[in-house]
Amino acid sequence: MKDATGRPQRVAVIGGTSEIAQHAVRALVAAGGVRDVVLTARDPQALEAFDPGVATATLAWNADASDADNTALVADLWAGGDVDLVLVAVGVLPDQAAVEADPAGFAAVAQANFTGPAALGLRLAARLREQGHGTLAVISTVAAERARADNYIYGASKAGLDAFFTGLGDRLHGSGVDVLVIRPGFVHTRMTAGMAAAPMSVGPDVVGAAIAAAVAAGGTRTVWAPAKLRPMMAILRHLPRPLFRKLAESRS
Amino acid sequence: MAETLTGWGRTAPSAATVLHPDSAADVARLLGEPSARGVLPRGLGRAYGDAAQNGGGTVLDVRGLDHFTLSDDGLLRAGGGAGFDAILRESVPRGWFLPVSPGTRYVTVGGAIAADVHGKNHHVDGALGAHVAEIVLATPLGERRLTPADELFHATTGGMGLTGVIVEATIRMKRVHSSRVVVDTDRARDLDHVLALMDGGDHAYDYSVAWIDCLARGARLGRSVLTRGRFADDGRFDYDPNVRLRVPPLVPGGLLGTATVRAFNEAWFRKAPRERRGEVQSIPQFFHPLDGVRDWNRLYGPRGFLQYQFVVPFGAEDVLRGIVESLAAHPAPGFLAVLKRFGAEGPGHLSFPMPGWTLAIDLPAATPGLGALLDGFDERVLAAGGRLYLAKDSRARPELLRAGYPRLAEWRAVRAQADPHAVLTSDLSRRLGLTADTAAARLRLVSEDAA
Question: Are A133 and B444 a contacting pair at CB < 8 A?
Fold first, then answer.
């Protein structure tokens, strides 16, 4: 159960190797109240290096999972009692030129960033609804709000994810379950290593802390990280195409 | 249809199917067909935390069980959903008062017994359970009529609704010869002063409570206004509990900031007389001052608030002082806190009061660092042999809370006999592992599954 200050007792992370997710877990554990954490990864051995500082279990899951796999995962996550927070932190940043050269690869991107986590999201939502409380948080991106020439494949797949969980949050209104859609900007992680940083870029610790704060505050919301991205994206989203193109080009 | 519920503090909501039984037979039937996530009775929802929530399960709103009769010799026989407000409207003009009244009259008989509530007279009269002659308890195994000779009776007083549904109870009321209270007020300059006044003089009063300014620091640390009284003997009965103020439904957060509260506390302390004797107050004024403002819990905005209440035994005054100091130093806008000197411990297995000092303070849930601050207090309280109050708790670490209740194992055993399939459950019970210590088993299960 979450407590009155919004601290979850039991946390599950789908995609536990995500640096953002690991920082979120650290921030939640530091606030106290977290009793155990369950992490999933494509290869659970990759999680050995991460110690959240509380009792931790690991499970295998990847975005190609079948519905039967998803059902089994949800059963495992709930095996010992209610889960108060599920953080979905999976995704890939594709080599866009490679996908353009071989479009067969697009399906894998969509599976990893959208259809895989969304299908699991349906199972998670149903289970959370049954317990009548809990938070489902998903890491989206500002690129889901408006894709650019140099990230439209990534952006489109994340836009699907973003729309899915945003709508799911409204669908779950009144069920006791909150859905958080987290939209980070450019984050310095393994995934973005070697890329030119965008304005307002932050470290994964900033996004992790924003996630922990949003979980504590409760409610179904969209969270921009850092928060000042929200007004910026409100403008960028509505910029005329030529102007937006010019702005995006000036960066690359 | 699921309904989202919270406690009075408006924190940690969960959704449950709410049903509205209006007879003991209804309750028995509903207990016999429980949902997978169990059943819990709920009264007026005045527990601050999650005691009357059952996420994903069934909640029985027992307010329909509101019948009551009062005999001429002061025996109140009331449905579990009967409210203290309705009872007082009937009983006070007839010369009977509740033997124990908490700080609000908007509680039900069932809820008050399940929390084994205390009032300003605990040092003389104990908690409510001491005045209950009989409980009619609906359990999943059928209806039980319980008296203090039954162990299940003592598991139920303070049992937080987890032993069954109180469909009826018989309470011995207190004879009064007036609806008015004669009150003595003393302003105490600091914590030592108020503790000395209470130690030295509480025995001469039926009712005693101190309000502490938890924002005052330094030499004024723990400055208080102590009010003590007893019922008048003037034969006048002019009880008028009508509510005059109401807080609108939408209040922004952060209204009760530290500066606002500090100014309020200052004004309130200055307004109190240094020493006044024999002031006549009404029952609502003396016993239920906050009931005069309907929905005052909304003042804390959308994030809500919590009430932190603990007791430490006599001799642990340094722990009390340390906590008051920490509250004053932390930027947590604590409105007036209530300090009370408890009398003897009662027989309820999970009853909160024990001989010592109890402090209760309301704090906005969004206060930065509040969770960690209170976790630290818990450790000091438990190390001193004290405990936290289940009816108020909304955040304690399960081991720490449970450690304050040495009779927990006994309670679990008696409870399990009345409810072997664990039909009765609550968010509070899940969060704290009250009925069973599931936390340790969880990870083993997950790990085994994974392996």
Answer: no
